[in-house]
């Protein structure tokens, strides 16, 4: 995972709930119309706008938004730490969508730019975000259908999981440190719906830095994470003896796949499918 993407997870950047009052004010400002010139400041928000049928209204995105479709060709306005306020203003947006830790919100609002803030750390947060964004875009029915589709895709992935995999313990590493996805995070919730037991509890936070010795003590049967982080697991003190390492029960994802899995957006169901594919390919050990 790229450092900027990990920061997005730990800072809850990407998605969150705007108030109905703010949405009503934005509609009034646009004469009752849905926003026609939208700037997004996270890949998940970019994907959400497109999933709700409004890709054509995007006029700029953060630098990490490379899809879908022609999004990669849109003007890029920086990232979490270096949002280009002046460039956003020149794009004349009637809506900027961003996360709660973005440094741009207060400055943009002071310049009269309409802003909506979203924060999705859990499956429930994501659903609330999609419904709120759907209301802002005049796509309430499409948002509800998108939520049903995501749930259906996760359920389909769960049905494919073999009996041999269900109930097995898992450690999900999101970045070297190691930093983990706990059972309370959206990744942890997906893992639970696939029938696995996370060794990192939600009481530790959503994406906590964990003690390597704790992982050794809890001896996970499976390990999941980005290849860049998991490449030399056996070299970590004590990890060579872990059941997951000893039996080669490790799912290592390439950067593009891991970006999908670690993004709390409308492709959450697709991410669950990727996880199920890898786990099933490991076979019983």
Q: Can you describe this structure?
A:
The structure is a single chain. The protein is of the alpha/beta class. It has 2 domains: 3-138, Rossmann fold, CATH 3.40.50; 161-282, 3-Layer(aba) Sandwich (Rossmann fold). The protein is 42% helix and 12% strand. It has 13 helices and 9 strands. The chain has helices spanning 3-10, 20-29, 43-51, 85-90, 104-110, 123-136, 140-160, 186-193, 212-218, 227-230, 243-246, 255-261, 268-282, and strands spanning 38-40, 58-61, 95-98, 115-117, 169-175, 179-180, 197-198, 222-226, 250-253. The strands form 2 sheets. Strands 5, 6, 7, 8 and 9 form a 5-stranded mixed sheet that branches. A 4-stranded parallel sheet has the order 2-1-3-4, sandwiched between helices. A hairpin with a 3-residue loop joins β5 and β6. α6 (123-136) runs antiparallel to α7 and α7 runs parallel beside α13. The longest helix is centred in the middle third of the chain and has 21 residues, at 140-160. It is elongated. The protein starts with a helix and ends with a helix. Mean pLDDT is 89; it is low at 1-24.
Mean pLDDT: 89
DSSP helical segment count: 13
Oligomeric composition of the shown chains: single chain
Radius of gyration: 20 Å
Shape: elongated
Tell me the β content. 5-15%
Q: How much helical structure, as a percent, in the residues?
A: 40-55%
CATH class of the largest domain: Alpha Beta
List strands and helices in order, with pairings.
Blueprint: H1 3-10, H2 20-29, E1 38-40, H3 43-51, E2 58-61, H4 85-90, E3 95-98, H5 104-110, E4 115-117, H6 123-136, H7 140-160, E5 169-175, E6 179-180, H8 186-193, E7 197-198, H9 212-218, E8 222-226, H10 227-230, H11 243-246, E9 250-253, H12 255-261, H13 268-282
Parallel strand pairs: 1-2, 1-3, 3-4, 5-7, 5-8, 8-9
Antiparallel strand pairs: 5-6
Helix pairs in contact: 6-7, 7-13
């Amino acid at each position: 995972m790229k450092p900027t993407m990990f920061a997005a997870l730990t800072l809850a950047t990407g998605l969150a709930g705007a108030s109905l009052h703010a949405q009503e004010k934005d509609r009034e400002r646009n004469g009752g119309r849905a926003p026609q010139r939208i700037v997004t400041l996270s890949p998940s928000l970019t994907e959400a706008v497109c999933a709700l049928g409004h890709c054509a209204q995007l006029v700029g995105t953060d630098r990490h938004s490379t899809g879908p479709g022609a999004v990669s060709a849109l003007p890029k306005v920086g990232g979490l730490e270096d949002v280009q306020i002046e460039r956003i203003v020149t794009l004349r947006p009637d809506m900027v969508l961003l996360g709660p830790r973005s440094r741009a919100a207060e400055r943009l609002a002071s310049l009269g730019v309409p802003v909506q803030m979203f924060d999705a750390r859990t499956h429930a947060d994501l659903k609330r975000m999609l419904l709120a964004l759907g209301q802002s875009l005049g796509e309430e029915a499409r948002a509800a259908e998108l939520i049903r589709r995501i749930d259906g895709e996760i359920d389909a992935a769960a049905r494919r999981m073999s009996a041999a995999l269900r109930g097995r313990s898992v450690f999900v590493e999101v970045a070297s440190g190691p930093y983990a996805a706990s059972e309370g995070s959206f990744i942890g919730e997906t893992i639970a719906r696939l029938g696995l037991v996370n060794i990192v509890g939600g009481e530790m936070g959503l994406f906590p830095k964990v003690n390597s010795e704790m992982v050794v003590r809890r001896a996970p049967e499976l390990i999941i994470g980005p290849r860049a982080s998991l490449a030399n697991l056996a070299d970590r003190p004590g990890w060579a003896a872990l059941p997951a390492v000893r039996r080669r029960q490790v799912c290592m994802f390439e950067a593009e796949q891991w970006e999908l899995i670690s993004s709390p957006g409308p492709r959450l169901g697709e991410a669950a499918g990727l996880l199920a594919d890898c786990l099933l390919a490991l076979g019983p050990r």
